[in-house]
Design brief:
Largest sheet of chain A: none
Helix content of chain A: over 70%
CATH superfamily of chain A: Tetracycline Repressor, domain 2
CATH class of chain A: Mainly Alpha
Structural class of chain A: mainly alpha
Largest interface: A-B, 53 and 54 residues
CATH architecture of chain A: Orthogonal Bundle
Mean pLDDT of chain A: 94
Distance between the termini of chain A: 61 Å
Oligomer: homodimer
Number of strands of chain A: 0
Order of helices and strands of chain A: HHHHHHHHH
Amino acid sequence: MPPSQTRDRILTATAELFRRQGYSGTGLKAVVAEARAPFGSLYHHFPGGKQQLAEEVIHASGAYFQALVCAVYDEQATTADAVRAVLTGAAEPLEATDYEAACPITTVALEVASTDEVLRRATAEVFERWTVALTERLGDRDRALAVLAALEGAFVLCRARRTTEPMLAAGAMAVAHATAAPPS
Amino acid sequence: MPPSQTRDRILTATAELFRRQGYSGTGLKAVVAEARAPFGSLYHHFPGGKQQLAEEVIHASGAYFQALVCAVYDEQATTADAVRAVLTGAAEPLEATDYEAACPITTVALEVASTDEVLRRATAEVFERWTVALTERLGDRDRALAVLAALEGAFVLCRARRTTEPMLAAGAMAVAHATAAPPS
């Protein structure tokens, strides 16, 4: 198998493990087991070890999630429909995956925020890219940040409580906020 | 020193460490070092080990944070002032503590959501108690869930990006949502 396929498998497996159990809880042995890759291939492809692997996963997951959310958003005819589709649309996969299919980087972002400046910056860059993409669509940076906060916070509450109720409630708030008249 | 003081020091130290570096990233050696407690005292006071310790910390931190937020809320004259005080009021301690003074249980909640059912339930119980307290004040459960999601999500974005901008934006949305006329 060509090296690039092994590399991709390692990235995909790591993203899965991070989403499910976080950064600190994911050992490199679990990564190679999940990726069905020889241990040596990990340092061959990621000489910087776990930190380099995590940095690449954060950027790759961030880009993937952004593309997914933007595709859902841009399919809709109105801002209200688009924001509703993104937030309430997140409820179904959450439930279908036993509350694992949430934001791919939040757990890692919180774990590294005060402990690893390289990875903290990577998560900050991803959140900033998402904010910019949403600002382009909503026409206002503060609204974009607020809607993104609602989505992220709802993922936390849904995963902890194993119900989609917080996502539906946050979705209604985000739709109202995204479509409200600008403050005078 | 009486055992109860050691027990309290262990709980406080663990809460601090969880907030800063999460559950998986916090070893019991770090806990006893931070608590200035002998290692043996940990299993004396918490025979169930790290899981029991975490469960007690989640409940204690949850009750502490709830009391703090309710005190801030109940000091205000109007719903708008109260929601604003809670959310935008969270911005100042965040900045003053180098973005560590955020929700005390979110990081742990995300780490354990798919990996430890005992601890997942503990975080779910805390989030439910917060939701009930906020529902009593806002008069509507969906609004309470949405405002809580906005607060939680803003903590994530602020910690990752080291700016209070998301909290201020989420605060404006939460105030508008908490005070909007009920949907007809």
